[in-house]
Structures are given as C-alpha cells and as structure tokens.
Amino acid sequence: MNTGSDESGEVVVTVDRADRTDRTETADEAGAVEAGDQRSGPGLGSRAPEFIKARRALHLSWQVGVFVVGLAVVVAGVVMLPLPGPGWLVIFGGMAIWATEFVWAQLVLRWTKRKVTEAAQRALDPRVRRRNIVLTVLGLVIVGVLLGIYVWKFGAVMPWKIKDQ
C-alpha cells in the first residue's frame, strides 16, 4: 500500500518453489501475491496434473504431446490464413494449447491479450473513431471520383472487351 512516504516499507524474504532461490520483496508485494494479485493472472508453468508432473518421463511425454497438438492447431491456422476459415483465431487457439504447458507461450499469450485490449480501447476513443470515419469517407469519395472519370472517359465497357486492337 502506498502511504506517500519516501521510506521503504517492511522487507519480506520468500522462497520461490520453482527454482529454490530466495527473493526479497516489499510487504506490499508479498500481500499482493498472497491475495492472488489479478494483475499478473494465474501463475506461470505447467498445468499438467500432479501425478504427471511427479514422474519425469511421463511429464516429458505429456509436454511432447501438448507441443505436437498445439503445433498441429497452429499449422492449421496458418493454412487457413489464405484459405477460407478463421486463421488467426485457430492460431491463437494453438497458442492457448501451448500455454497450458510452456511458460514462453503463456508470456506471448499475455502480451497478445494486453495489446488486443489496448487496441480495442484506442478504437473506442471518440477522436479515433471520428478520424477513421473521416478517412473512410474520404477514401470512398476518391474511389467514386476515379470510377466516375473512368466511366466518363471509356463508358461502361469493360477494358477486357476491347474489339479494336
């Protein structure tokens, strides 16, 4: 909790179970971690069941299986980009599958969610919406003028039906 003073708060030493190293943090940070700080979301790491994580060979085969399934979904999404289908949605689905097991995918997914949320908030800004509407109308007017000039100069005949060459 920020009380406004310049003095540092109480210091708490915690042990990180993942790498067994001591980490120093302020009492405020420790309270936020204990209270389940929503800003950082759920913890990073494998979400495999405990009985799988307890056996190294089983956990490794679990990770390989998750990677292969996620890879298949991501490849299907990449194939759908030029073809009909929800390509980006499927790619993010594959990333979500990877994020159940791999920290790097969890970090990429968090970064992507943050950027999408920021873009959505910017898009809802009235000034940005007004600018986008003005630019769209301006683009449509330019296309309409060019189309009008084409029809005035060449008529309604399409260029690939030219008879005299």
Kindly describe this structure:
- This protein has 165 residues and is mainly α.
- The chain is 61% helix and 7% strand.
- It contains 6 helices and 2 strands, in the order ββαααααα.
- It has a two-stranded antiparallel sheet with strand order 1-2.
- β1 (11-16) and β2 form a beta hairpin.
- α4 packs across α5.
- The longest helix is centred in the C-terminal third of the chain and has 29 residues, at 126-154.
- The radius of gyration is 28 Å and the shape is elongated.
- It starts with 10 loop residues before the first strand and ends in an 11-residue tail after the last helix.
Question: What are the defining features of this structure?
Answer:
165 residues, mainly alpha, 7% strand
Topology:
Elements: E1 11-16, E2 21-26, H1 27-34, H2 50-53, H3 56-80, H4 87-99, H5 103-123, H6 126-154
Antiparallel strand pairs: 1-2
* CA-CA gap between termini: 82 Å
Rg, rounded, reads 28 Å
Which strand order spans the largest sheet, edge to edge or round the barrel?
A: 1-2
Work out the strand percent: 5-15%
Oligomeric state, counting identical vs distinct chains: single chain
Number of helices: 6
Helix amount, in percent? 55-70%
Class inferred from helices and paired strands: mainly alpha
**Which runs of at least 5 residues are low in confidence (pLDDT < 50)?**
1-39
